[in-house]
Amino acid sequence: MQISQAGIELIKHFEGCKLTAYKCPAGVWTIGWGTTEPIHGIRPHEGMRITQQQADTLLLDHLKSYEQAVKTSVTYPIHQNQFDALVSFTYNCGKGALKTSTLLKKLNQGDILGAAQEFLRWNKAGGQVLQGLTRRRTAEMERFLTPPEDPLYERAIDTLVEAQIITSPQIWKDRTYTQANVRDLMIKVATKM
């Protein structure tokens, strides 16, 4: 799985792009679309400048390692929107933060709603609640809880309702079931027929 264009746009929306290095609210030198990692071996620093094309390329290049961190850390089946939210979170908070987070622990235990609520705890920098981080975590949580638009799964939910395996199509919209749950239930229905 790779981050979708919508996931990239989520990151861009909250990171913003600055072509001259600056210190972020956490006091870390940053450039481009939130890049804090070295560029050709040189960390962002005062006076450093890049072009828009370099900023765009850096984002796409650096996202690969954050995608990999999510792939190796998450053991529970997730869909594209959840992956996008987790990559955005990891890009902003760091790979170590993801790996040690209660968010990840809850997700890997299958507690989707509990994991989603954990996003909101990550809204501080330097011990202070930042409104920008609160907005970002809320957007990530909402993306995480948004089922993918997939007509196959919508039809599957209808089938599960008709077979009285689940009681309402609203359950899918309420995020009680993930794609993995639906797949397992469809297998259950198919084996009964």
UniProtKB/TrEMBL annotation:
Main enzyme class: hydrolase
Keyword Ion transport: no
GO MF annotation list: lysozyme activity
Pfam families for the chain: Phage_lysozyme (PF00959)
CDD domains referenced in this protein's UniProt entry, alphabetically: lyz_endolysin_autolysin
Keyword Hydrolase: yes
Coiled coil feature spans: none
InterPro entries per UniProt: Bacteriophage_GH24, Endolysin_autolysin, Endolysin_T4_type, Glyco_hydro_24, Lysozyme-like_dom_sf, Lysozyme_dom_sf
Full protein name: Lysozyme
Organism, as annotated: Zhenhengia yiwuensis
